[in-house]
Write the structure tokens for this entry.
Amino acid sequence: MKTSSDLNRRQFVHLGTLAAGAALLGSRASAAEAAGHVLAPLPYAAAALEPHIDARTMEIHHGKHHAAYVAGLNAALATAPDLAGKSLESILADLPSVAADTTRTPLRNHGGGHWNHTFFWNIMAPAADAGKPSAALSKAIDSAFGSMDVFKKSFAEAAAKRFGSGWAWLIVQDGKLKITSTANQDNPLMKGLVPDADLGTPILGLDVWEHAYYLHYQNRRPDYVTAWWNVVNWNEVSKRLAAATS
Ligand code: MN3
């Protein structure tokens, strides 16, 4: 079980490493840049998504897996001072320009992991707070897929068919909704790494790594996907559609 002192110690050790790295490189990075990316708390209690996603899974997923991506991202950024001050989204959208594979691969895996999980926590909410799709979102879903039921079925198929670890996504691509999926911690922002057909602005995403569901659902990924619909934060998804199409 994660304790806050574990996390504080990890962050402290990590900050010390970064500070030393910045000093060695003669970096003039601001204190905020030197501090690197931090693991934000979950936007709700770990037990808030029960019974659909259990508290223990959320604690390990956020406090261990996501924390490790944040640490890995910061370690990768410490080897790439030229990226200091760039947003994570802009780095992920331009990974082919990172020359050294020793930096690009961890940025892809850990930077993708940090972005994906931050997104994931925020497009979920306790079932009572999950809201409903906005009129604009309902219309866009009907237009792209025919109905909400067909959309959910197609999305669940994309999640089920993703072999091994990865994500299913609902993206805005050229102003229209599209379902796609990516392997590992790749995402639809990664120009030049994922197929162009997968690129777009994510407005909904589902983690189908086994660590996201195995404690409670074991090998039953489809059951996890079915339960997950109960905790999709439609208010947030609707907001993201509005932002992506404005
Ligand atoms: Mn995960």
